[in-house]
Amino acid sequence: MENVKISGIQLFLLIIGFLFGSTSILTPVASAKNDAWLAVIIGGLGGACLVWMYVAIAVLNPSKTLVEILRNRFGKYLGNAIAILYIWYIVHFSALTFRNFGEFIVTVTYPETPMVVIIGIFAALLVYAVNSGIEVVSRSSELFVPLLFVIIIIISLSLITTHDFTAFLPLLENGIKPVLHAAFEFATFPLGEIFVFLMVFPHFNKKINNLKKIAAFSVIIFILLYLWSIFEYLFVLGKDLLYRANFVPHIIASLIPNSNLEPLIDIYLIIGGGVKISICIYAAAKALSQVFGISDYRKLVTAVTTFSVVLSVWVYENLLEMVEFAQKVWPYYSIPFQIVIPLILLLSSYRAKTD
Amino acid sequence: MINRKDKWFLSTAMLAVLCLAVLFLPGCWNNRDLTEINIVTALGIERSEDGKILVTIQVVEPAAIQSTASGKGKGGGAQPKPVFVLSYEGETVFDALRSMLSQVDKRLFLTTAQVLILGERLSKEGIVEVLDFFQRDHEVNYEMDVLIARDVTPAELLEIENDIDPIPAMYIKKTVENTVSRAKVKRTILIDLIKELSKSGRQPVLGQIAKAGKKVVRTEGTAAFKNGKLIGWLDPYATRGFLFATGKVKSTIVNIPADGGKISMEVIRSNGNVDVKLKNGKPVKLIVKVNLEANIGEYEGERKKVSPDYLHKLEKIFGEEIKKEIGRAINLAQKKYSSDIFGFGEQLHKFHPHYWKKVENNWDDVFSNLPAEIIVNAKIRRTGFIKNPIMKER
């Protein structure tokens, strides 16, 4: 393992940036309409459990990456096979994030630019970042991610006069079912995606027990900020527009009176998406290098990124497919990767430890 | 260790990359300069008699604006017109806007549009369809004012050349904006209209604009809608009653008859809300509650001394006057239009969702037959610089 260390604050900001990655433009709980806030709370609790599970796995297997843990628990062959499935999942997932990014920019900012150009340029930048090492990614997140907080606060404060504070009523108009579905969505996107950090946690430079604190703190901060954002979306747009809009945060930003602050959302996305995709690419390349016994993951970064860019362009025919996929397929597709396998890992690691 | 030659090469390469970056970084694929676009300031939409959409645009010519500003008072010389107005008929709004380019030189830039005027015929047939484009397009400003033209087509309004402001659209926008100090027209921006159209239990209302002369417009009164279709008008006083009830009055002048003369009250603070009273799970009463504070702005009565007791008496008369206006608005909404513009239904929907489910489909009928209780709590606070009218010295 290369000797790279990430400090506590860097890890915290990486997790925050990662979680805000696509949620900065897509609203995973929008299908619950005016109960979206409830879905954030329920899904947040569920997602926090998932994150707790990943952290517990990391604590039980100190300084081991996901691939090493898988091999340890399932044996060499089965472990490698599952690791390859995971690599596919991570690459697919980074492709979807690329696509979200591209669709947003093409819809909102540069409508006539071919999407592949936008994704390609962004990808080139991220390849450079990841090739420079995870340390560089985390240092730049230290610089940029605090901007996210500033942007969220600027936008919500400048809209405070247009708030309709009763917009979240009536409670549970359509019953609890859509809320639970949205909560499930929220637990798997973005919270459950934290499993990718199992490839990053080994670089954490402090005592492994601090990991729990940092993960808990960042997840709580994220859920609170997101809850705040969802309330803001509801109060400003109302449930109908929240449900209908493709990119809610952009509409919100365009409503700020007498100023043109939409580019803030682009910045928001570039920071969040940048952190998210670079973590994914790093994780995929690193896992691939470990599975096939390649000494340096950097040799694989360009290949993984290129593959994921191509996949991102091919994966959907149109925007609505993307939205449908994120809402209807992604949560179920994620069950084995985010819930079942980690749960088995946790239980078997726990047994190994107590034995 | 990097030797000198390599270092030189590296720095040159970096410089070249930076220079190249300048070519790629600044801006978008479809970059358009100010000189390559037509700046649209206002849009008018009307339905033609054969069911097509007639879109009118008002485009401003930045160069001409400057020359009119500096050329004022000089007189003589043919001045270029600061704006031009053009109409085009198409199947849809977007179709008309694009097809219009056969008559306009440069691309139309919609983000700068300040006012959207909807025609009467269009509004009677429904406005929901034409608003779709304005939500979908990436260039539309969600904050433009939406108005309904009364007895006049949007094109006629946009053609008005006004002396106050060289850009008619800005002139119209300002006359709507100043409703904060008169409360005779409801100001609705596009995003609010979109939100209102989707609400169950509330019908949208839009400001009304009419032609008041060759060079001026008048924005007074309101258009009431029902299910996305224009159903009738509220006169300026009913409009104010409506605004009082929904808590949208910032300041206005209310005249009350007193002491054989008139007193103009300046409302300085006001909030209002609507509610529905339920009994045994059934609505029995509509309640409108308004609290407001006012100053005596002008006194034209015969009394020579204004005492605190007298102010309390005035408060009563003042309250009655406002009640009358609110009552007028409620009466129009209930009896004439049968359209819940106040959002009583929205209150039911939010706070009594179970009952609302039952009544949702025939709420308009239920609403029209409910008695209304209007509670106005008016306070007169100050009397301006003086206490009493002029008194002959004795």
Describe the protein's topology.
The complex is a heterodimer of chains A (355) and B (394).
Chain A: H1 8-23, H2 36-60, H3 66-74, H4 76-109, H5 115-131, H6 134-158, H7 177-188, H8 210-244, H9 248-254, H10 262-291, H11 298-314, H12 319-354
Helix pairs in contact in A: 1-6, 1-8, 1-10, 2-7, 2-8, 2-12, 3-4, 4-5, 4-10, 4-11, 5-10, 5-11, 6-10, 7-12, 10-11
Chain B: H1 4-24, E1 37-47, E2 53-60, H2 62-71, E3 83-90, H3 93-99, E4 107-109, E5 115-118, H4 120-125, H5 128-136, E6 145-149, H6 154-158, H7 168-177, H8 190-198, E7 205-211, E8 217-226, E9 229-234, H9 236-245, E10 252-258, E11 261-279, E12 282-299, H10 308-337, H11 344-351, H12 353-359, H13 363-368, E13 372-382
Parallel strand pairs in B: 1-4, 1-5, 5-6, 6-7, 12-13
Antiparallel strand pairs in B: 1-2, 2-3, 7-8, 8-9, 10-11, 11-12
Q: Mind explaining what this structure looks like?
A:
The complex is a heterodimer of chains A (355) and B (394). Chain A is mainly alpha-helical and 355 residues long. Chain A is 74% helix and 0% strand. Chain A has helices at residues 8-23, 36-60, 66-74, 76-109, 115-131, 134-158, 177-188, 210-244, 248-254, 262-291, 298-314, 319-354. The longest helix of chain A has 36 residues, at 319-354. In chain A, 50% of the residues are buried. The mean pLDDT of chain A is 87. Chain B has 394 residues and is an alpha/beta fold. Chain B has two domains: 30-68 and 79-234, no CATH class; 237-394, GMP Synthetase, Chain A, domain 3 (2-Layer Sandwich), CATH 3.30.300.210. Chain B contains 13 helices and 13 strands. In chain B, strand 11 and strand 12 form a beta hairpin. Chain B is globular and about 95 Å long. Chain A binds chain B through residues 107-114, 117, 166, 169-171, 173, 237-238, 240-241, 251, 254-255, 257, and chain B through 28-30, 138, 141-143, 191, 194-195, 198-199, 349-351, 353, 356.
